[in-house]
Amino acid sequence: MELTKPIKIGNLSLKNRVVMAPVKTGYATPEGQVTEELIQYYVNRAKGGVGLIVLESAYVDLSGKEIPRQLGIYDDSMVEGLRRLITPLQEAGSKVAVYINHAGRIANPMVTKLPLIAPSSIACPTIGVEPQGIPHEDIKKWQNTYVKAAVRAYEAGADALEIQFGHGYLIHQFLSPHTNKREDEYGGSFENRIRFGMEILDEIKKEIGADFPIIVRISADEFVPGGWALEDAIRLAKILEDKGVAAIDVSLGSSCESGAITLQTLGTQKGLAWEFASKIKKQVNIPVIAVGRINTPELAEEILVSGKADLVALGRPLVADPLFVEKATSGRSKEIRRCAACHQGCLDELRAGRRFGCNFNPSVGKEEEIEIQKAPQPGKKVFIIGAGLAGLEAAYTAAARGHKVYIYEEKGEIGGQVLPGSVPPHKEELKGIVEYYKEVLPKVGVTLNLNHKVTAEEIAKWEADEVVFATGGQPIVPPIPGLKEYGFLTAVEVLRGEKQAGDKVAIIGGGLIGMETADYLSEQGKKVMVIELLEEVARDMGVFEKILIMKRLKERGVEIYVKTRLKEVGKALLVETPEGEKELPLPDTIVLAVGLKPDPSLYEEVSKILPQEKLHVIGDAKEVRKIVHAISEGRNLGLSL
């Protein structure tokens, strides 16, 4: 397969064409130093067979930092830690590139406590703080931060260097006419706008030698009116080739104005970045790297075979499964925990100041769990009621540890709430985790019983060592006068296709489920309104996913009422607003999306007849939360049995 063929970038030989793209983890110290946690995270990806690991973004100056625990390369004291990180990755068989960057106007002033800098005083919309335009006399100072960082990477033993020229960061801010309004020799014409970055490249080559491989990451288009566009990127790529750059890593967008495209979140066009990479590849003779939601070996192979790129870069897919390459090359691609580009467990958690992880892989950040160890006393009989994600992960983990596991599910398929969750537009890849469990559960000996609703009496007859209640939650039905008489559907019923909504729909609840149901129904041409009690809808959505869904709903004319409570259903919908009561037209269908509540009834019944020490409640049956919590809870229980 093309994926496994060796390739050279510059004078650096790679064993295959898989690159680990940089993804910030938040595993460094607050000062930017390497930690054992960070080392183990990358070592597992190296052991998984990646040809080239591009380390996460290392900031070249304190003023260029984005998150509190970001990897740093701004001081000579970083070199030893970087060497401790790089060496074991090389020993595990991967080549390593250090990736250097200054965020410019995208830096987080709450983290840096320093003024923002940029070529011109134009604020990033997502930051909202106006940067200081770099005075002409300080240009060399800021260029030198990159040069010194490159020398540190070289001294730390890196095999290559990658420099960020894209994504709206500092060098890109010079490149783009949208952010560069300078009137000196670093602004204006194309030649002037690329000067800042070109001089950095020249100085780095002087310091570490022309033969050291340098990869440049570019945005082929930033998708901003009057900004950096494909024709600019092609001109730049040709110049970079003439400069002796070893490879070009092609991405898209600006983290300020087009962050959803940059991060390739759900709702963006899958494959768009590969097509732009293909356009760049046709214009240069050095290797081109494609990136963006390449979450299966088949997709990676297709990109390489079709000639769109010479290498493929996987960021979040290697977060989700560090053994991606190993499984792909050993005929086990169906066993890959596929990234769904949801951001919920990784970037959304990191952005919220919580721990970086993965929705679907609970071992991220707990690298010792990559290989599940056998239990000291295997052979327990473990019965799990419910085949949602919490139950499935508990079953897999317990069986992998050597226990005999039985799952009972009252529906005819596994997956629980992720199945209706995968129905709204752009959410179909969430089903990948269900396909994963279908593949791996039989291989670890799990016995699956579908269409089987168990009773307390039946459970009492099992010769069970452990009984796990993963029975999920039930939709909340608020006590609204007239609601039951008029009739309603739940969002889950609608998304599962169990019941059909009419042409005019009122959705009660504007959280993630409500908004995604509105997206689903409005795409079908139905007239939809959303009634939300709080002052903001989609509060539990990731920022970029929310931006995209709100844009789609606005285009389809979905009416959204916030700070509005449905008070009564009669000849109209009587609602209470800050301005007082008013009536909204009666719809054909009312859909409830006000959340779920745990259903402990079966557990409570069984706890009266069996010892509580052998009973366990996990997932939504315990507390309604997100996918990341359900799977993690399943894993933790499986490890404890």
TrEMBL record:
CC cofactor: FMN; [4Fe-4S] cluster
An MF annotation (GO) of this entry: oxidoreductase activity
Domain NADH:flavin oxidoreductase/NADH oxidase N-terminal: 3-335
Matching InterPro entries: Aldolase_TIM (IPR013785), FAD/NAD-bd_sf (IPR036188), FAD/NAD-binding_dom (IPR023753), NADH:flavin_oxidoreductase (IPR051793), OxRdtase_FMN_N (IPR001155)
SUPFAM superfamilies (alphabetical): FAD/NAD(P)-binding domain, FMN-linked oxidoreductases, Nucleotide-binding domain
Keywords for the protein's UniProt record, in alphabetical order: Flavoprotein, FMN, Iron, Iron-sulfur, Metal-binding, Oxidoreductase
Domain FAD/NAD(P)-binding: 381-606
Family (UniProt): In the N-terminal section; belongs to the NADH:flavin oxidoreductase/NADH oxidase family.
Name the record gives this protein: NADH:flavin oxidoreductase/NADH oxidase
